[in-house]
Amino acid sequence: MLEIKNLHASTHGKPILKGLNLKVERGEIHAIMGPNGAGKSTLAKVLAGHPNYEVTEGEIWFLGQNLLEMEPEERSHLGLFMSFQYPVEIPGVNNVQFLKMAYNTNRRANQLPELTQEEFVVLLKEKMQMMEIKPEFMTRNLNEGFSGGEKKRNEILQMAVLNPKLAILDETDSGLDIDAMRIVAKGVNQIMNSEMGLILITHYQRLLDYIQPQFIHVMLEGKIALSGTSELSAHLEEKGYDWLLQSPKEEAYS
């Protein structure tokens, strides 16, 4: 589904990604962990097509197509979704307006009929119930006045409505209390299916207690330094990233 080969990327002339390789297949959940500055969020933004990041070397293939040749909206239409670490507020645009526009834009791009207002509201209510989001959120302006947990829950609601083929969640657990974490994770688990890929970017083990990945990757200095299973995240929780920095890569985890 997704294959990244020898990816190098920079922002404002500063190299961030330095030869990253990653492959994600349908039905797989991959967690990417690592210290601040390792390049985790940069990877997410490069995949989404953020204009401030320049790919200087390497390839990204998504569903057999060259992702680097596509504009951000084309990537979205192909089925790529990114949840932001810090969701933005958009005054004057409510949730129904925003989500209906995004949903129908994707439908048009894929030669599918658009939903009417009534049809879309039925779909949205179903997804809001799944995410335990109150009905009044339909008419609230997008993220305006939302708490941190409400913003993150709203991001996963967008994911549920758009039903992507590959979702990238950039530190979705940041700022969440236990109850919000449980609800967000429940929503992600309900959305996940055998045809979808998922990349979780996180600092902490706690999210992985709720959403269990098959693969865990540790990023250091702009590339994936080590990959493993759930046991790897337990090692990181116990010893921190210094343990990996101070150990030879081939001996750091077994």
Report on the architecture of this protein.
The chain is of the alpha/beta class. Helix content is 38%, strand content 28%. The protein is built from ten helices and twelve strands. It has a six-stranded mixed sheet, sandwiched between helices. Strands 2-1-4-5 form a four-stranded antiparallel sheet, covered by helices on one side. Strands 7-8 form a two-stranded antiparallel sheet. Strand 1 and strand 2 form a beta hairpin. Helix 5 runs parallel beside helix 6. The longest helix is centred in the middle third of the chain and has 15 residues. The C terminus is likely disordered.
Helices and strands, in N-to-C order?
EEEHEEHEEHHEHEHEHEEHHH
Discrete helix count: 10
Largest sheet: 6 strands, mixed
Strand order of the largest sheet: 6-9-10-3-11-12
Report the count of strand segments: 12
Give average pLDDT, whole number. 89
Please report the distance between the alpha carbons of the first and last residues.
28 Å
- Given the helix and strand composition, which structural class is it? alpha/beta
Short account of what is shown:
Residues 250-254 have low confidence and may be disordered. This protein is α/β, with parallel strands linked by helices and 254 residues long. It has helices at 40-48, 72-78, 95-109, 117-130, 148-162, 178-191, 206-210, 230-239, 242-245, 249-252; strands at 2-11, 14-24, 29-33, 54-62, 65-66, 80-83, 90-94, 141-142, 166-170, 197-201, 215-220, 223-228.
